[in-house]
Amino acid sequence: MKPKSVLNGLPVYQPGKPLEEVKRELGLSEVIKLASNENPFGCSPRIWESLQEEAAQTALYPEGSAPELREKLSSHLGVDPEKILFGNGADEVIQMIARAFMEPGVEAVLADRTFPRYQTQIVIEGGEPVEVPLKEGVHDLDAMAQAVTDRTRIVWICNPNNPSGTIITQEQLEAFLAKLPEHVMVVMDEAYFEYVDDPAYPDTLSLLEQDPRLVVLRTFSKIYGLAAFRIGYCVASESIITELNKVREPFNANRIAQRAARAALEDQEFVDHCRKANQAGREQIQKQLEEWGLSSYPSQANFVLVDTGRPADEVFQCLLQKGVIVRSGEALGYPTHLRVTVGDEKQNRRFLEALAVCLDKPLKEQRG
């Protein structure tokens, strides 16, 4: 069987190494995973209470438009429910956007070091990705605007960016939008926006009210801790949502995920706790890195990209042997960097202790 020609050379997405796999391979009983930007605090306990009510409905298909979740989310965000669409994770929404708007002969502009699924979906649909280098780990919006042509259909911006964790500001985004021609859609992937504490971060939902070219992507996988349920969404103009619904699979957001997301929205205290704990954990990691003289990007997400000064795969393997799973920057385009998810205080301490050994760095005894 011969596959589509556009698949030639297209890499298979490699997620963070699973806990179970590392335990089996290395014979370790205790392993921590700080590789996939998952929430170390799990999810709200309200999720499990709510799912008991769904037990009798497992034989029934879900409502494809997720009306109850849509109403609850629209109230939480302060947007029209008709402007919301759900996916089997934000990954599927990315796929739907590419399927609806990309085709042979058109281009999409994106950063050269960003979430790889944008490029994958562009290529699958026959489009041409136009990559623009990051500038000190941040989207170079001036260069991206210059890369736009009559063939450009979409500009993808991950904010905070994965893997650098950096952000563009409200002022920068507004100036960028003013430069773009009317035919260009701008997809703002805000998977990590709940973790941001920088007041300069864009209010994209307000901008969307004046600019129908914007599409805002968000997810329940990160701060809400529902990665296993696969539920993400986008907010966009009704005309864009109509086109996306044409390519959406009929029952893409499953019934249990919809119920879990509704319960998650009701527990904003949990979200606030996770946000504050992440800020403290990020500072815990970055303070030690600074003491060692190791550079890292100023992350606004729940991960830190650090330059170890050594081949990333070697440091990754050293940490793995000590039961700490991180993400090697080799596959991310950063051959001497590691991307580490911010864990809880104990997990962060264990990561730093293991990294100190792998890099032969001094580490003061930490308490907690």
Automatic annotation (TrEMBL):
Q: Which GO terms describe its biological process?
A: L-histidine biosynthetic process
Q: What is this enzyme's EC?
A: 2.6.1.9
**Domain Aminotransferase class I/classII large, which positions?**
30-355
Asked if the record carries the keyword Transferase, the reply is: yes
Q: Which reaction does it catalyse?
A: L-histidinol phosphate + 2-oxoglutarate = 3-(imidazol-4-yl)-2-oxopropyl phosphate + L-glutamate
UniProt-recorded Gene Ontology molecular function terms = histidinol-phosphate transaminase activity; pyridoxal phosphate binding
Tell whether Cell wall biogenesis/degradation is among the UniProt keywords: no
Family annotation (InterPro entries)? Aminotransferase_I/II_large, HisP_aminotrans, HistidinolP_aminotransfase, PyrdxlP-dep_Trfase, PyrdxlP-dep_Trfase_major, PyrdxlP-dep_Trfase_small
Q: Name one Pfam family in it.
A: Aminotran_1_2
Residues carrying N6-(pyridoxal phosphate)lysine: K222
User: How does this chain assemble?
Assistant: Homodimer.
Q: What family does the Swiss-Prot or TrEMBL record give for this protein?
A: Belongs to the class-II pyridoxal-phosphate-dependent aminotransferase family. Histidinol-phosphate aminotransferase subfamily.
User: In its UniProt entry, what is this protein called?
Assistant: Histidinol-phosphate aminotransferase
Record organism: Melghirimyces thermohalophilus
